[in-house]
Structures are given as structure tokens and as C-alpha cells.
Design brief:
The chain has about 350 residues and is α+β, with helices and mostly antiparallel strands. The protein folds into two domains: about 230 residues, P-loop containing nucleotide triphosphate hydrolases (Rossmann fold, 3-Layer(aba) Sandwich), CATH 3.40.50; about 120 residues, Nucleic acid-binding proteins (OB fold (Dihydrolipoamide Acetyltransferase, E2P), Beta Barrel), CATH 2.40.50. The protein is about 25% helix and about 35% strand. It contains eight helices and 19 strands. The strands form four sheets. A six-stranded mixed β-sheet has the order 6-7-8-3-9-10, with helices on both faces. Strands 12, 14, 15, 16, 17 and 18 form a six-stranded antiparallel β-sheet that branches. A hairpin with a 4-residue loop joins β16 and β17. α2 packs across α3 and α2 runs parallel beside α4. About 30% of the residues are buried. The chain binds adenosine-5'-triphosphate. The site of adenosine-5'-triphosphate has 12 residues, from β2 and α1.
């Protein structure tokens, strides 16, 4: 259950490395029980952020609050949080059970109670109880990942931080563990803070996503909002395939763009008269149109390529102004789009668009 109360709050957090500023006065609130994911391209500052949150590095300026306690100067080992790394840092010479119990041993918990808790955690992570005596070196990649999670949970942290824990695993295992992590989050009710550069991973698991760009957050919202209503070109393009038309509005109601024919009466989110913006439409909302159809927006083009993407087919179409558009159809709805090189008519409706203003 996500509470509306923040468990973690950042105020004006700045991180400098010499003359280089990696984080530019970041404000953020993460809610109790939330699965919060920070996504961004390489070098945007994700690892820097998480290192400050767990206490592996010091802020240059600003404050970090854990509920009503200021923690930015608190050493990592005193913070009630725990980190799961990409490299799992398990002890290879110890058994699965000894690895999971390690945090409890540090806390001097009696051995029978430690074992009981380790077995409960094996159940929680859906590993067989007889793995308790198994060597780490005999575990598969996915099993090791589960052991690392069990060990992190043995700390009983208030917040679990994850730094790309699935990135070294193969596609199928990653997909399985994404769902297991989401499920584990629901079952434990803990706050999970996760960083990744995989948009798909973020979309599958998170309650909210923060998109990071060059040391600041560009947008923080639920996945649907970020996908459907991005605030900028950067977010729109980062969140998968997208078509963006540079538009203007002469009268403040109708949008115009050189390659678009607009059906009369079509209104959209408005720009002020004379204003500029980007009209966004995702590839799945563009269709190949026949003569009898009258979508709100029509575009003439030439079919350049067709790519089979498993369950979907992706088309590339070049408009008369030279813009390359992406259109996607489910395989069973494969368009009778004509041959490569042929003229096509595309269309989409205003209700399927989103306007990015002031670009
Ligand atoms: P990736 O996805 O590649 O791990 P990231 O988003 O986690 O990238 P960071 O590792 O946080 O990015 O790095 C953010 C910026 O800060 C980068 O430009 C990086 O070069 C710089 N940086 C990080 N650590 C240091 C350091 N110790 N000294 C100097 N610059 C650093």
C-alpha cells in the first residue's frame, strides 16, 4: 500500500565532482511503500543520486530527509536502508543460507532464529528450502539474484535501493525477475527505489518513474502519464518510438504543420495564437487510411521499410517534407499498406495526440 506520506525527501541536492556538477539542486519526494524508479541515459546522474541516498558519497549541498530525520551526513552503516547492486557481492565460499543470514549474524541474532528467518526468506523468494545448504557457486544467475534479494531483506531495511540489478542477466530471466520483483514489492510492502536505463523495466514494475537528464529530473509521474503526456521532446523520445510534428497555431485553435492536412473543425489542446509546439503521436495510433476515411490529421507519404518485431510490425514512412514516421500494427492487424516504395496515406485522430508546448 503506497502511503501519501514521503519516507524520503530531497531538498536542493547538489553534487559536484571538482568543477563538474553532476546533480543540480534536485528536489524529490518518495512515498512510503512506493516502487519508485529513476530512469535516464548513461551519465545522467542516476548512480550518483543513489550513492548519496545510501550514504556511499556526500552531498555538496542540500538536505536528505528520512521521514523527519536529516540523514545526508549519516554514515551508510547507520542508515536503515539497503542496497542491491548489479554485481551481487555474494560471498562465493559461503552457502546460500550463510549468505542470507549474514546481516543477522552481524546483529548477533541467535543461530536458530537466523536459520528460521533464512528459511522464511527462501520461501518468500520462491527458492526451495534445501537451497539453504547449497553453495553459491552451484546457483544459476537468477538464483543468485534471488539470494542477494533475500540477503537484502534479511537486513529488514526501511528502503531497498537497487542499482540495475538485472542488467547482467539474459532477456528471458530479466523478464521473469521483473515480475518477481514487482510481486515481492507487493508482498513485503517496503519502499523500493530502483535505477535502470531500461524503460521497459521501469514501465513494468514502477508506481512512479522519474526521468533524469543531465543531473536534474525532467518529469516525475506514473508510467502512463510519462508515456502518453511527456513534458518535453527528451522524455517523449526516451519513452520509446514516437512521431513528433513541429506545429504552429495561427488562430489559437487549429494546429498546422507543413506535412499535415487537418480536417476542418479539428481542435486540439491549444497553443496561443502564433505559438509553437510539438504534436506527438505514438506509432500505434497512426493508421493506413483508405479514400473513404477522414481522420483528423492526414499525411501523404512513401513506404520505406517494414520490420517484423515479433508480435508487432513496424513501418517506416517518409513524408513529402522528408520526415520519417514510424507506424506500428499488431501482427494480426498487419496493414495492407502496399509495396515498399509505394505511396501511402496515413491518418490519426486528435484524441490520440499530445501537445508539447514551448519547445
Ligand atoms: P550510467 O547509466 O552509465 O551508470 P549514470 O546515470 O548512473 O550513468 P553517473 O554515474 O551518476 O551516471 O554519472 C553522472 C556524471 O557524473 C557523469 O558525467 C560522470 O562522468 C560524472 N561522475 C560520476 N562519478 C564521478 C567521479 N567520482 N568523479 C568525477 N565525475 C564523476
Amino acid at each position: 500500500m503506497v502511503s501519501s506520506d514521503p519516507i524520503l525527501r530531497l531538498e536542493g541536492v547538489v553534487k559536484k565532482f571538482g568543477a563538474f556538477t553532476a546533480l543540480h539542486g534536485v528536489d524529490l519526494e518518495i512515498r512510503e511503500g512506493e516502487f519508485f524508479t529513476i530512469v535516464g541515459p548513461s551519465g545522467s546522474g542516476k548512480s550518483t543520486m543513489i550513492r548519496l541516498l545510501v550514504g556511499m558519497d556526500e552531498v555538496t549541498d542540500g538536505a536528505i530527509w528520512l521521514r523527519d530525520q536529516r540523514i545526508e551526513a549519516m554514515p551508510a552503516n547507520l542508515r536503515p536502508t539497503c542496497m542491491v547492486f548489479q554485481s551481487l557481492a555474494l560471498f562465493p565460499h559461503m552457502s546460500v543460507g550463510q549468505n542470507i543470514e549474514f546481516p543477522l549474524k552481524l546483529r548477533k541474532v541467535a543461530s536458530s532464529a537466523r536459520k528460521e528467518r533464512a528459511l522464511e526468506l527462501l520461501d518468500l523468494l520462491r527458492l526451495p528450502r534445501d537451497y539453504y545448504d547449497k553453495r553459491i557457486s552451484q546457483c544459476s544467475g537468477g538464483e543468485k539474484q534471488r539470494v542477494a534479494l533475500a540477503r537484502a531483506l534479511a537486513f529488514d531495511p526501511e528502503i531497498l535501493f537497487f542499482d540495475e540489478p538485472l542488467s547482467a542477466l539474459d532477456y528471458r530471466l530479466r523478464k521473469t525477475l521483473e515480475k518477481e520483483l514487482k510481486n515481492l514489492h507487493q508482498r513485503t510492502g517496503k519502499t523500493f527505489v530502483y535505477i535502470t536505463h531500461s524503460l521497459e523495466e521501469a514501465m513494468v514494475m514502477s508506481d512512479r518513474i522519474a526521468i533524469m537528464k543531465a543531473g536534474h529530473f525532467e518529469q516525475i509521474a506514473v508510467a502512463d502519464e510519462i508515456y502518453g503526456r511527456p513534458v518535453s521532446r527528451f522524455v517523449a523520445e526516451f519513452m520509446g518510438e514516437v512521431n513528433l510534428f513541429e506545429v504552429t497555431s495561427r488562430d489559437g485553435t487549429t494546429l498546422e504543420s507543413p506535412c499535415l492536412t487537418v480536417k476542418s473543425g479539428t481542435t486540439n489542446e491549444s497553443l496561443p495564437a502564433g505559438g509553437n509546439g510539438l504534436l506527438m503521436v505514438r506509432p500505434e495510433f497512426i493508421r493506413f487510411c483508405g479514400e473513404d476515411e477522414s481522420p483528423d490529421y492526414r499525411i501523404k507519404g512513401r513506404l520505406l521499410e517494414e520490420y517484423a518485431l515479433g508480435s508487432r510490425i513496424q513501418y517506416e514512412v517518409e513524408t513529402e517534407t522528408g520526415q520519417i514516421l514510424t507506424v506500428e500494427k499488431l501482427r494480426q492487424d498487419r496493414a495492407s499498406s502496399g509495396d515498399i516504395g509505394s505511396e501511402v496515406m496515413l491518418g490519426f485522430d486528435a484524441a490520440r495526440t499530445h501537445l508539447i508546448k514551448d519547445t
